Queue: 4 jobs
Job 1
Amino acid sequence: MTVDDHTLAQVAMSRVEFDRLVAMLEREPTEVELGMAGALWSEHCGYKHSRPLFKHFPTRGPRVLTEVGTENAGAIDLGDGWCAVFKMESHNHPSAIEPYEGAATGVGGILRDIFAMGMRPVALLDSLRFGPLADAHNRHLFAGVVAGIGGYGNCIGVPTVGGEVQMAPQYSGNPLVNAMCVGVGRVDHLLSAAARGVGNPLVLVGADTGRDGIHGATFASVELDQDSADRRPAVQVGNPFMEKLLMEACVELAEQHGDWIEGLQDLGAAGLTSSAVESAHRAGTGIDIDTQLVPRREQAMTPYEVMLSESQERMLVIPKREHLDDVLALFRRWELHADVIGSVTGDQMATIRDGAEVVARISIDVLSDAPQYELETRRPADLDARQSEDLSALPDLDVAHAGAMLLELLGSENLASRRWIFRQYDHQVQNNTIVAPGGDAAVIWLKGTTRGIAVATDCNGRLVGLEPRIGAQIAVAEAARNVVATGALPVAVTDCLNFGNPEHPEIAYQLAQSIIGLSEACRALETPVVSGNASLYNETPDGAVLPTPTVGMLGVIEDVARAMTPALHDGDTVLLLGATVAQGAETLAGGEYLAHAHGRVAGLPRLDLDLEVRVQRLVLDAHARGLLTAAHDCADGGLAVALAECCIAGNVGLDARAIDLGARTDAALFGEAQSRFLVATRDVEAVRVLAAAADVPCTVLGVAGGGLLRLGPLALAVEELRDIHEGGLARILSGPETMV
């Protein structure tokens, strides 16, 4: 076949890569073979720029049950025969073009990754990034994504329990939509996604196949430009009610009849191509598929379209031959289409037919051997100047204006309460949610036990942009801190690496350094990376997004009845662990105050991993001894914002008038030094003794009570703080008419 540059661009394949494919085949590919190879060799599926860096990640640990990359998600041993399976993935490009469906199908896809392993999904989290909400188009994207997440998750009956949102100019026009799902079940119900057993049938279950989503994987592997809106057909369309049936049928199959099947795989990016080829590659087998046997909802679909369609709510099941009728009957009882479309072969080839005609016959190894590129890296030219900026030269905050500044920050788009978002989500469905959205991490009860899991997502792209290695370490540390604040022990990580075009050396530098930083922090905190996703080419003509290696952290708490929240109680003594109140101007680096008050993103983020480990262990030790009544991570916005959040959560004031702010009011109140917790206790001396033994700074701030937050020169009513904080996002969104 004659292949021109336009055809190669459609499948996101370079001329050099095409020549490589021809050399491997020793002939030119057919149209279907080219489409399949383009999809599986794309960045989205093949990780050709990021996979060489994955060697840095720690992936093993005493709780890890799966080898990273070999299954749809990572599995962690929870004890007593229970396990948790979790993963995070992106749906950035589709959400930039069609925000509702892009976000909704992102949720659908991550759900299928979990129940493909036989586990029941019990929690969804969403890590979101947008441009400033003063812009009408960014508000349009924001509203559409939030609605899409709720529209899908609420219908399927899986609670959306957490996540975070950050706005920055670099995300304008290229939002980041990272969805994380957690499932739980019995270890002996875990399923594999391998096409084992020569002669076993391939059964396609779920929705009929249409033309939606064709080239979706390759679309996600190129930059967004002025023509991207023309690729709206590459955005999938979801049906959560179909997914609910699919989920229940697959979980029933795993829990009651796992011995009927050899493998179960979802159809996500690259559709039937990736599902079938990846399953065969895991098992060392081949596949033979007749596209005419694939149920369709559109007329005159070609084999190329059938193999690359990304129609949602579909699963590939590999039953044992003797149980084919049992499997078909089970899915049909759930009113789902289930059709045999091919079989497992022993030749390690992907044979695709259109009835009697063979339209593709290509080695599984060739399709699975995406090119791997060594990155050319170059440190961004402006980093040294931005990092070395003397923040102490900035004028300090006038103490008379400290209260007004706190109110401004509490109502700002990055620090205002996310209640406007999470009130649209059903976070109590399944009745397992012990700690709901709005705190540091969500806590989900493992029914039948006293145990639970705590889950959180985190990443501050501004910090990563200022110093990728340290910023990525901070993302891991803060996600772990969020989990620790509930009383849970962090045990494992999933990640989603959101970056610009890795073919640009400066972006490659950010990617490489961030992965090293993530790895260092995960080793220090003993939280192996068990699953993840890379989303590159997040760029518009105006430039790349901030480097955003999002971290999803999972922790285990032995008794959910003892889970902590940030809420203070009358009479609690509040302590600051990890640092003194007084801070230097360098702690303003990359912070919300610096951006809000001075319009700057500068300075050098800092993190002491040894201190981080000691502080987290101290909080867990104090909690285990029953000494703590509340805990909260002190992060974005600094000490004043964190204390305000604790007072709002508990509907109680705090008298901390006597604290020493030191030489810089702004740094003491709003500096973002790392490794800090606010904890509340009724036994101050016992906590002090533990802190001294752990070599962790410990400062008494004051006692909770009354209706005012008194913090040094500040004196603000908790009700005023609540009104500003909880109504901030709604006020921002009520600007000029949102685009439709």
Note: Residues 19 and 441 are 49 Å apart (CA to CA).
Job 2
Amino acid sequence: MKKAGADILFMIKKKTIVLIGILTTAAVFFQLSFAWAAPSVKTEKSVYKAGEAIKVIFSDAPGNDSDWICIAPAGSPDTEAGSYNYMPRGTSQGSLLFGSPAPGKYEVRAYYNYRRLGYVVAARYAFSVDQRKQPVAENVPGKRLPVKTEKTAYQAGETINVIFSDAPGNDSDWICIVPAGSPDTEAGEYQYTPKGMSQGSLVFKPPATGVYEARAYYDYSRKGYTVAARYNFSVGIPVQAAIAGAIPEGKEQTEVAEALPEKTADSETATPSPEGKEQTEVAAASPEKKPEPEIIRQVIPPSGYTMEYAPVVSHLTVGSFAAALELADRNYQASQAKGGANQDKHLKLLERGKIALAAGNYDQTIADLHEAEKRFLTIEGTVSIPEGLGSLATDDTVAEYEPEMHEKLMIPPYLVLAYLGKGDFDGARVERNKTINRINQYIEENPERAYLENPFARLLSAVVYEMEGKHDDAKIEYRKMKWDDEIARLENKKEKANDLIVFVDVGMAPQKYEVKYGPATVIAGAGSVTLGFTYAAYNAMEATVENCTITVDGKPIGKTNKIYDLEKTIFGQYERNKDAMMAKLMARMTGKAAAQVGAQMLAEQALKNVPFGGLFAKVAIGVASSQWIAAEKADLRSWVTLPRQVHYLRINELGPGDHTLAVEYNGGTQTRQVTIEEGKIGVAYFFAAR
């Protein structure tokens, strides 16, 4: 046994040394390859017509998540951000599409390694826009637009969410989606806006691949086919902050590479072609895109931890928050009782604190979430020796619960909401700062965790900055979210706002369920052992709410917009962590198997001279094997009272005073009183758990 163990250890060391050598060689190779090529950026043409989209082609970028490209007036300072797009992380070459600026002379500027270098231009390129008009929609960055789509580039098969504002609210107002460039009399796919609603959103079916316009026709009975507002977007063809990537049909990859601009050692800047000479058009190849995580939604009876909280979830889905809070308190108290699952104590504090927020019990929320967070920060990344040995003997459920990263990122924002609900702005500011620090620690300092990006936490942080009067800090968060409209709103704001911002938690987060592997009999030396284990997978909960309608004082204001898809984040994180989780389980099972084989061999040796002794020993070991397989339970613990998604709606310039605010969703309604103070922003929170 010792020799076999030594051989295995030798092989592991040998493979590790080989792997290190390969990685070192690869690192040297890539560093050299990056050193050989200077960054380059250029536009597709040297002269554009007014209204034409500007295609910017880049190459030899380092691929950092903070790299960005902008279009700025020629001669403006390098600190002028202009119209900008972040570059897809990990992408060294490709193209970005910008909206058309006003006629004039411009520069494209690339800022690489921005976190370290700041406003140091890595490459630049000159072009111009003339007066000749191109009859297309202008998606003007930073301008408040009466109609726009939720994003400028959709994947094939995605529904199109069209957001409208400043509508007159007539019963003949309508919005349509048509191919870009089609006549204004082309109705395309259309929907009427709800009568009396000045702002909201409409959801359209996925159109075919192509470039489209969303058009708004207000006062149609009087004005006919007069377009009040229009907005460009694309389906299946990246338009903004995406790779434009297709190689023309019939062209080889090598042909595209030859079309790229030649690199020289002295190319801090790029020189445009002589005036009047058309520049070479380039199609850059798209990098391979990671598939979206598969969302599994099936009917699975709850078990283990999810069974314990099934009654709580039932009360939440019908809006009975007081009853849900009472049950959550019982679950927590049971974990504190003698023989209770004390290792779940702080997870159950998260559950109780989250429900208390929905019930308006802000002091309870603050106390519970603070205590849980303090403990989680203490044990972050650690497992005690007794717990480690315990998990080898039984399973993960004996260890103290350490939350997933997406769960840790949700604690400070909920504390912000609790402090705001209580009227303690100083407390909200402290939690806002913790939110920013947590995002920086978990995401910005670890770009490989970009999938954890939490727009809800960023938006709430920006709102608190606004409430504090720190508009520059708010604009930083809006910039990271690429919300140019909000940046423009702050820049154009002359007086303090009387806005109300509504946050709605929608649905329930995915829950874990048990998946079984085995049993399988394994022969090892003179003995045999039965292997089998269970592991946890995620199942999406039933989703019945797509969006919510907000009314103020009985008047419909609009529908909420999704800002954070936590369900997608959870499944994405699970897919990334699954291999490590399975490796851990297999290691534990292998250890148990080795222990069982050893025990069987020792028993046979000790009892070889006792009649029927060996037989009895094998039977006893076989029974023990069945027992540990039955005891090997999957860890089904998670923060089950988190939402599936977070939605929001900003109600601009709501008059100061008391208002009745209501949220309506799929047969459910919640109402509460809010008070808007003169020159101050109000925040309201709801939980639509259906």
Note: The first helix runs from residue 2 to 36.
Job 3
Amino acid sequence: MMERSVRITTLPVYSKLTAESDVPHRIKQSRPDDLRLSRHQLSTYDALASGDYDVVINTAMTGDGKSLAAQLQTLVDSRSLLMMYPTNELVRDQERQVAQAVDQWKQHGKIRATTMTGDRLREIVAAGQFSRKAAVIRSLAANNEILLTNPDIVHYMAQFFYTRRDDAPDALFGRLLDLFDLFVFDEFHIFQAPQIVAVINAMLLIRAITGEVQPKRFLFLSATPGGLLGEYLERAGFRVKTIAPAADGFYLHTFDSPDESLWRPILRGSEINFSALRAEAWAEAHLEDTLLAFFKEHRSGAKGAFIVNSVAAAHRLVEKLRPVFAREGLTVLPNTGLAGAETRKASREADLLVGTSTVDVGVDFRINFLVFESRDAGTFLQRLGRLGRHSDDGRGHRFEQFTAHALVPSFVHERLFAGRGADPALLADNGEFTREHLSVAIRCAYPVPCEFRSYAQKWGWIQSAHVYAQLFNPTVKDSYIDVRERLKADYWDVFHLSTGRALQGYQALRAEARQVVEEAQSFRGGSPFDCGVIDESALARLPGSDETLSQEAARDKVKRYDLMMLAANADLEWLGPQEFARVARAYGADLTPTEVEGMAGWFRLRGIGSERKNVTIMLQQEVGAWGAERWGEVQVIAGVTLEVPFVDWLDELNRHLRQRKFVALLCLCAPKELIYKLYLPPMFEVYPFISRDGLEGSIAFARDALLLHAAIEERGFPCGGGAVIC
């Protein structure tokens, strides 16, 4: 296609500083001498400290110090803090930042901080320090004032997991509530309805248990105050305070230098070029004249990121760009879910980082050149927010220019710069705009995907019913009478859920389709196609490293990854469970037999192919006689196999897949049509299927099946069973 490239400029952004006369004495006493707080930081501190609000929502811009706003209660008042981040990459990034804050505020020995991720829990148990994850969680929580974790682990504690059969259900979660006062959810806006429902369920339980005696506070960072989260908070009767710096006039957009005593720079002015090309096509067209040219022109004052939607595209780009950049003495490294921890860490120091969603959220790296794709408005703004946060690379090299290349769908490009129908253009070529104006334009240009607003009524109720049922356990039944009554009222007010009917439905579904219950109870959904991978690809080794692998690099070669992505894009060799386990042990990976047996396949990864292969689900059963009641409904099915051209491992894989059962939903409609008609999010995973009797349609698995069911019910969409579909 012919490229349509246009350019705009965004103005620098400054954050309003708090007047010294407004800073409380206790903060002045403990803060670093050279630190000035932004208005939104002090407003957040005041709202949390006042006791007037249960929930505070801070919507400050990227780079404006939201994390410090969350930490002030601990740094100043020694209030214990549990911070939750959506990715482990962000947990690691924040661990470094918290350590710096503790050092700057001279709180060594007073404030202890640590991380708690699933990988760390497994590592500690494997090392023999504790026999159970519950004991590790209890120790980490009891011995640290700041605990950096993810919402997944807290969700499972709130669902009373990690306990033994003879334990009181609240043995672990109740201890967590004794130890922590403030619960922070960072970058929560990236989550969908299932995670929102899960967090609201946890918050309702926390409030019901602690009440007014030991009230807890909740802080959401970067969350949108409206939408589903805002509605549930309002229905639940939480007292909410929104800190909205943009609406409150706490930002100044100007190329002029304002008074430094009043304003702090947070985002530098940037040149943003828009193109409707896809990432790999853009790199092919502009490798020499744009991408490499920027680094040649600015040399030591150039550091960049190339963020794409597809892991396969990211790795193909690295393979293409690395030798070209190397000839100029420049480095290119991947930062994706398929890259190992050592490689991801090293990528932050590379001249050009090529990443995916692993670097979308909150991770702070210093760049002045950015190329990025975007799935939707939120992804666009999140990725653009990586640019302009720092004036240098952290090694003494100052950035003189900030440049972005935004790769957007052609219809978005049209809406932004040409208008559509009677709607005028949202931006003008060569125009100057504030980041706020650009944000509004981007949100108008991208369609709003399905929000799955009925998910709580369709599937979220299972989490509520499980908690309610557990509170009848003989060990807590008598002490939790008031808690059950409060939850009974809350569930009705928030989710319109009758606890009596929910308990009956929960018990019946557990008996009939336990796999569906487990899927609905999970935080992010299961991974039915998770494979074991031994990564022997060229990108698994850092450039310039010797043949001897470090312990961490060796373990990095053992990975779990999605079969569908691998089947479509990777050069694979079948290993089988025994050989995979043997090689994994040799590399130092400590996997249990249960973990290995639960995988959907076991492969050696040789590399990523140059072209994507078509993958089709072959359903080894006849569905032509199905009635309408089975189409568009979540069910547990067997007989799922794959059809992948030009591979030699398919028979071994399919023999294994035939033995597995999957939570799935089927619809007699092509995936593209289904996505279009139901306004499904761009990366929603729906696959084509062909049944043994020749019927074709769409199939979704695991959590996507539950979400698709909610969307189908909301729109009354017919999925099959005699009707002519699509």
Note: DSSP finds 27 helices and 28 strands in the chain.
Job 4
Amino acid sequence: MHSIPVSTTNRREIVESLKRARNELDKGHVVCIFAEGAICRTGHLLPFKRGFEKIVEGKNIPIIPVHLDQLWGSVFSFKEGRFFWKWPKKFSYPVTVSFGAPLPSAASVNQVRNAVLELESDAFRYRRTAGDLLHSRFIEIAKRHWFSFCMADTTGAALTYGKTLIGALLLARWVKKTCPKETMIGVILPASVAGSLVNIAILLAGKIPVNLNFTAGSEATAAALAQCKIKTIITSRVFLTKADLETVDGMVFLEEIRKTFGALDKALGTLTALLPAHWLKRRYVKNQKPDDLAAVIFSSGSTGAPKGVMLSHRNIVSNVEGIAQIIQFKPNDRIMGVLPLFHSFGFTGTLWLPLLVGFGVVYHPNPTDAKTIGETVQKYQATLLISTSTFYAGYLRRCTKEEFASLRYLIAGAEKLRDQVAQGYQEKFGLTILEGYGCTELAPVVSVNTPDVVHGNEKQIGNKPGTVGHPIPGVTVKVVDPETEQPLAPGEEGLLLVKGPNLMLGYLGQPHLTEQALRGGWYVTGDIASVDEDGFIRITDRLSRFSKIGGEMVPHMKIEEVINGVLGSAASVVTAIPDEQRGEKLIAFYAQNGIKKEELWEKLNQSELPKLWIPKRENLHLIDSIPLLGSGKVDLKKVKAMALKHTQKPA
């Protein structure tokens, strides 16, 4: 085996190296190229250099895509911010080498890189072992970090990993005894220590937790209960009172459950938790596989009726692994958990991510309570916050720089990050909000920006403002023409498709909807996006958020951006309703008291928007506030209903 060194700076030497590689091909030798041009520092597959195009130019020689999986984390990787000088996590380190189908010599850089990314996605299934179950992984982490801080909330509850395991085992015994024949158990609890313990306990009991969206109304809750055939709902009387929720049949209350635990039960639970991890797993992990159902999460229903998304252990574990590969967590990290557990980002990001990686989490049940959130971040020295652009705007107004001084990572998802919010955080806190993207059906993280890495003379870009980052490891994406389904070139806008080990099992009891959502193993996101030359994804709009007016496709988000620019803040939403003459008519709602609809309409006409895209003056409506779902997303279903109601009013 021979090697051909390639200079990173001397152009003449680079050309000479490419010539040597061409000569080796002419001799009939195999030439292996590391197309990234550098060892990655970000945890992502880097953009490919174009050198290999020159090597095969004019030759009828196939290009074989090859992927090496699980190198990240070895002593040779840049994990923990350095090469070599770290203790290996494993001895006899496992590496998966995957080979793809041959590509023609005319294949472009992006085609080859995409083929390697698909190999990476497929390789994730070889990582899975029989023990890759959420509760099994938690047992291992809890035993390893027994005395370390695990979780707390703003009620004053605080637990170490050891106490969390003891509490979860006690609750698991109750669930097993009380619900022996039930498959799914409902949960109506906020982001809290209690909510986390109940979710862990249900899995330890061999059941499936279903966190019910208590903000969606009684009709949606009843539909979810019926779909899942839930008979038992674990909740809290105190929480129901605070949230002004009514009791329903099947509810059992934590206040009453706690009273059933006597001194003997607690002692037995403690002794059980002290047993070796392998014994605990034999007792509490029986006949379960990574592809078994781990949770049902109902989609937000921002554009229609909520659907029950079935997620497996493999889906969630793979998502956590992908996140942990690109964000350098430390044992003393603490995440501020503000998103509800019925929200997929809350469920994976603030429940299972810390539990499976081994750091702490602090919960507060109200994501809009900026004052308490700021105080709690400061009190517990939280280092990571996941929220939405809408909620971040509230923290910007109410929280102080001192309160947010401990934060290292701010991640935004669920909706587009507004420029004013991102700029405000830079100016007030000196912090960069990293925008990400995901879907409930993908467990949920698809992509996220990460901090740039500067190491010596090497700078690797992890963050491109305005994009939602690279796909996380294991996830691959492609953009296709919505009508022909043909792949599009970098930078071209089209329908975003996603594939990876985080792809849901399907929609509960709705195989026809599952079939509609998938195309050849790819999930159809319904989002219009582009992927640039460096692999960063830019979300443009929802396919469902376009209107066809006079034969032209009109994007709602583009109109909202211009209206928000006029208002000086993100306080608008655009929808459309049927129109006999033009097919659809645009309706815009805005929540800003300082401007009248006539002034807004005039400024829209002075903007660069095509006249066809501007709502009529009578279709601009001032409202008190933009309706939101519990997840922080705009409630587009309610907005549509408001639009219909306004147009039905007599003139």
Note: The longest helix spans residues 109-127.
